Structure to design on (147 residues):
């Protein structure tokens, strides 16, 4: 049975997002998660940080977890990177990823925007955090859904 039930994306769209995460994580020890919900009361980045901690992404060995957060109805999103990845990139990197995602979102293609963000983050993770052969990753929990 398909593990994700959402009113935001179809099964095929979620498979595209999971495939993008698998491809991005293939050559890195970093972890990328995507969290989607309808509404975000308040600031998207603050909500993203709260979800980041709830999903325990801050507990990764190299502190290289990244969360892409999207509130569909409120048209808000955020990218939250842990301190390990944040020390390897500049604020310009995060702004560039956000800008590229936003440009795609404006065309109405949320899935393509999310996948582009995942791809860009994965490329940067690969440079700074190569694959750890002792790390086994599961992909079934890479998309999380809120309210």
């Amino acid at each position: 049975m398909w593990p994700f039930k959402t009113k935001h994306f179809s099964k095929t769209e979620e498979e595209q997002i999971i495939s993008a995460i698998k491809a991005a994580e293939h050559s890195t020890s970093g972890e990328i998660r995507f969290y989607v919900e309808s509404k975000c009361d308040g600031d998207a980045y603050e909500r993203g940080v709260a979800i980041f901690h709830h999903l325990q992404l801050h507990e990764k060995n190299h502190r290289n977890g990244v969360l892409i957060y999207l509130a569909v109805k409120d048209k808000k999103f955020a990218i939250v990177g842990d301190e390990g990845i944040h020390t390897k990139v500049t604020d310009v990197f995060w702004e560039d990823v956000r800008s590229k995602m936003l440009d795609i979102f404006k065309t109405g293609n949320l899935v393509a925007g999310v996948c582009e963000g995942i791809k860009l983050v994965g490329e940067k993770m690969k440079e700074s955090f190569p694959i750890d052969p002792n790390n086994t990753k599961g992909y079934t929990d890479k998309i999380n859904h809120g309210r």
User: Anything to note?
Assistant: The domain at 11-142 is CATH 3.10.310.50 (Diaminopimelate Epimerase; Chain A, domain 1).
